[in-house]
Design brief:
By secondary structure, this protein is α/β, with parallel strands linked by helices. The chain has 11 helices and 13 strands. The structure holds pyridoxal-5'-phosphate.
Length: 394
Amino acid sequence: MLPRKERFFIPDGVIYLDGNSLGILPKGAMARAQQVINEEWGQSLIRAWNSADWMGLPQKVGDRIAALIGAPAGSVATGDTLSIKVYQALDAALKMRPSRRVILSDSGNFPTDLYMAQGLIQTIGKGHQLLTPDPEAVMDQITDDVAVVMLTHVDYRTGRMHDMDAVTAKAHSVGAVMIWDLAHSAGALPVNLEQSNAEFAVGCTYKYLNGGPGAPAFIYARPDIVDSIDPALSGWMGHASPFAMTPDYRPAMSTERLRVGTPPVVQLSILDAALDVWNDIDLQELRQASIELSETFIREVEARCPGLELASPRDPEKRGSQVSFRFDEGYAVIQALIDRGVIGDFRAPNVMRFGFTPLYLDQQDVIAAAEILQTVLDEKLWSHPKYQVKSRVT
Ligand SMILES: *Cc1c(COP(=O)(O)O)cnc(C)c1O
């Protein structure tokens, strides 16, 4: 049964609607962090690469993530940041279609995905073009000059969700390669990568997977294409035999070739422990609970706060696990909410985001959050000057 609040450290007086940005600390992760620092690093030192199997961690954690995104064991590599993984996937995908020059994304994509594409285009220097139509127009722009369709499944701002199977099928029908960014999908809803048949997927683990700030990213490559991938970032940890120390690069014959350098052992250990909370979670049940939470929130907020405009799709089937509202003073409203224990966040220019994480939220939390939002708006609490000052991180 959901939620599983007892598995998390939920600070007193906090209703946390930002697990779509940084998940809450799982209790097991705290214990593991202490163990990896005190015992493994502190006592075993370099011996821990073998004795604590630090060397096996990236693959072990990759397999656990694979199970949450409908991918087979061995198909997911972990490490680095999502931005890096986007770059690797896009480079590999473009090399699969050397005669085509168009990368198709959308205007709702997360900026770093687009920035990495722009940088890669420059590095390759062959005049590739990045197209970013409105999300609703993407399907019509999948034509046979497109090399790669690179989309984020769930829009970070609005929560709007692409139809993974339909878009992938359309991309394949014109001979394009498909990359999905699962940043707002992994741990948020059921994903079936194998069924979609997409070539690549990438994602991060500090959002719905609760791996902690800066937790390593992941990359999936469809097993039948792995051996033909020519890695852009040919680091030693992706080598077939890193400790042979040979002068020439020879990629591992597995998804491991998408690893780059030394794994972030402390963060990977914390993530490994954080993933324990998923062991007995049914993702269909999670999705049902997520829809119920977000439907309650929309209903309560619309009844209480007529000045807000829903920025997310009204149909829950077209939404991920977040709900956003537009309001010109959204930044100040979020600051006023945070001061009252309701933590959401703000994305420019005017979007207030609220994430729904059924592992540690229940209906009462959501209703209480809507009540506090109503108070902040009715009493114009947001207009206090202290809520107008923008911090570096919004
Ligand atoms: C959160 C997020 C990122 C962040 O990338 P990092 O390299 O981890 O900073 C990238 N893309 C999308 C779609 C995201 O939601």
